Each structure stands twice: as C-alpha cells, then as structure tokens.
Amino acid sequence: MADSTDGSSSFRTQANALFRKNLTFQRRNFKTNMRLILFPVFLCLLLVVLQNLVNIELDKASLKCGCSCIDQDGNGECERVCGIEYSDLDQVGTCSMPSPPEWPPLLQVPAPQYRAVRTDHLLSFGDFPNDSCTSTASCPTTVLMTGNNRSLGESLARNMFPSSSNFNSSNGLADVVLGSASETPVSNILEPAFFSSLPVYYIQSQCQANSTFSISVPVASTKVEKEIRCVQGQHLWRNRSSDINNELYAGYKRGNSEKKINEILAGYDFLNSNVSSYDVIVWYNSTYKNDSGNIPIGLVRVRRSINWVSNAFLQLLLGPSTQMLFDFVKEMPKPETERRLDFSSLLGPLFFTWVILQLFPIVLTALVYEKQQNLRIMMKMHGLGNGPYWMISYAYFLAISLVYMFCFVVFGSVVGLKFFTLNDYSIQFVFYFIYINLQISLAFLVAALFYNVKTAAVVGYIIVFATGLVGAGFFQFFLEATSFPSK
C-alpha cells in the first residue's frame, strides 16, 4: 500500500507537502528565527558604534600633526602653522611632507647582549668569541662568509672591515658604514635609531681608544645630536652555505635548547664570484619585520648590507678610493593625513564568520528534529521518496540561506561597513553562494551523527564559535602572510 501511494504521488505534490511542513516548522520557531535575523543586525550596529568611538579617539589633537601659532608676516597677527618641526613622535606621521627627511642607511647590528658568542650549541665552530665579553658589552659583531673562492672572500672581507675610521666630515655620513640595534619602522618618515637611547655604531676591524664621537643629523629645520660608537666587526669563513644556515637557525631563540639569542650581523655566499663576475646571496636579520599578517610589515635594513659588500668588490677591482656612495634613504612625499584604524575590517572577518555560520546549526537542528520526532518515517509512509525529500529540503534551505545573506549584505552596506562596500558584489555573491552550499551539505552529513535536537544545537553553536576563533586566530595568519605560497 505504501508502494502504491509512493508511485501515485507526483513530485509536485510531494514538494508542496514538504514546503508546507517546513513553513509550519519555521512559524513554530518564530522567536528563534527573529534572533537569527537580528544577530547580524546587532553585530553590524556594534561594529559601527565601535568604529565611531575609535574615530573620536583618533581625532584628538595629540594624534594629529603638531601646530604652533607664529607671526609669519610680521604684522603682529598670529597664524596657525603645522609641520613636523612642531610635532612629537606620535604626531609626525600625519604631517604633510613635501620633502621627507633623509636618513643615513643603516645595518641591523645586534645588541651587545645578543651578539654571537661560543655556546654549547655552536661547539662545532670554535672561532666565535668567548661569552665572557657579554658582561662587558665588548663582543664583536660577526659576518659569516662562504663561496667557491675563499681568497676572493677574504679580500672582500678586508675591504669591508677597515682598520681605522674612514669618517670624513666633508662627505657627511655617505662613506661611513653605520648600524643600529633599534627596531625598524614601517616607513622611512622617522628613523628610530636617531631618536632612541641606543647608540649608532660604525664597523671597524679594531676599535681604537676615543673612538666615540657625535654627529648632527638634520631633521626638517632642526638637528638631532647622536652618539656614534665603534663596534668591532669580524668575518668568519664557512665551507658551505648549509653551515651558515645552521648557525643562523641555532642563533634563533627557539632554535637551540638553551633558549639563547646569538645574532649574526649578516651572511654572504659569493658562489662562483671572481674578478670578472660578481654573484652573491645575502642573509639578513628580519627580527623586526613583524610578518604576522595582522599588522603592517616593518622595514628591514638590508639595503646597506648589499651596498656594503658591493663597495668591497669595487674597491678590490678599482682601488680603495672607489666607492658607490649610498647617500640616504627617505620616504615618498605625502600630504597631511588622518590617523585611522578600520575597526570593522579588523574584527570583520571574525564577526562575519560567526554570522554566516549561524545558518549551520539551524539546518542541522531542523534535520535532527525530523529524525527525533520520526517525521521522516511518517512522511515516507505517506509516499515521500528519498530523492524528492533531499532535493526539496536542499532547495528550501538554500532559498532561506540566500535570503538571509542578501539581508545581511544589504544592511551591512547601508550602514557603511567597508567589509561589503570595498568588495565587488558579484564576487561576494559567488563566494556566498558556494559557501552556503558547502554549509548545507556539511549539515546534511553531520545530521546523521545526532538523534537529539538539544545535543545537535549545542554542538552546532560550539562549531560556529570555535570556527570563528580558529579562522581569525590561526588560518588568517597563514593566508595573509607574505611568505604563504600563492600557488
């Protein structure tokens, strides 16, 4: 009798009955549906309120370009003038800079307490200095070298580490190899090395007595006095580039069992270089690059490392007076800007994941409810086949999900969330369509594991919450990191 009823029931009749059943179920869960709809509305409004509060804080005068009242025309009237000369370090980044300051190029010199010394994890190389120099802050800074022509490498090293200071006040700082242990900025507007309490170093093979002096670095209409201190540099030869790789890794805090930092100034592999061919690979310190994917990437002081060894090669060929001067580094000119933090884009991915995944427990509990209440069996007894059931249920949840996402995108765009307005809507539609299809399919699969609605609902919302946290705190880091392979 059941078979004959199933055969006589048309697909249209089964679809109509199933849609009526679903609508009845949704009406019974009116409060749950309203909470589902209001949840993204609440999050969008919360992001807008937080963004406005952040903007109010960033609009304070202490975070804008510094200004002063000056009588420029000599008529006794005070005029408001703004610029970097009236700004502190928190304000200067927003100032107009038609001609940004020029800074001497620097090496990333390890701090005295972190310079490479002989330790238990570097016993295979006994040419590092003894660690007793750490207590007196007199440890030399080390450059590792390798290549197929050792005599060439030794000659280049002698040119890189002069025996006496080559500082010449007439040339300024262009012909002096300077370095700093300070952190690097994200732009060249200000060079922290000249505003920190740390000294600026210059590299010598041997530091003589009274080898410390001061220089004046022009910044806008003012000058910054800075102490220049000698640091001994040494080069160590290695037979293979793999040895340098191992030593660099062992000098990383997590690369050795002692948790000790043993930093190398730079590394050079001259490969097949000779007097007629120049080919080199440069290792550099990227400690302060901060390539985490969530904050702006800091600059690395690698340009001076390349210029340093290139000058050594030119001096080998053309004589010690030959130099390729590296005058300065500077930022591009910029207009006056406002300090802004796009709070909605910062928290948007986490909130967005939570919102779009809200549909997963809804679909899951609806399917488990029919199983728990034996509705599937009853519908099958009345002629509903498996094919029409799954097809109609899938189409129904897909329609509900499309309406939900449409309302979410429209409301988010109306309130001005850049998460929606800055991305092309056609691309968003394709992404949402694929995502909600995968979500419905996953709910159909997971529903087979549950027989109780409450258990399914708890697990479903735990999945929603955990997925957002894992996605924002773990996978986002890899996907946005520049080191993540694109292919």
Describe this structure in words.
This is ABC-2 type transporter transmembrane domain-containing protein. The chain is an alpha/beta fold. The protein has 13 helices and ten strands. The strands form two sheets. Strands 3, 4, 5, 6, 7, 8, 9 and 10 form an eight-stranded mixed sheet that branches. Strands 1-2 form a two-stranded antiparallel ribbon. Helix 2 crosses helix 10. The N terminus is likely disordered.
Describe the structure using short key phrases.
single chain, 487 residues, alpha/beta, 13 helices, elongated, disordered N terminus, ABC-type transporter activity, transmembrane helix, ABC2_TM, lipid transporter activity, ABCA
Task: Give the topology.
Layout: H1 2-8, H2 11-28, H3 30-58, E1 67-70, E2 79-82, E3 106-108, E4 141-146, H4 150-160, E5 178-180, E6 200-204, E7 213-219, E8 222-237, H5 241-250, E9 266-269, E10 281-283, H6 303-318, H7 343-356, H8 359-372, H9 375-381, H10 386-414, H11 418-421, H12 425-446, H13 453-480
Parallel strand pairs: 3-5, 4-8, 4-9, 6-8
Antiparallel strand pairs: 1-2, 5-6, 7-8, 9-10
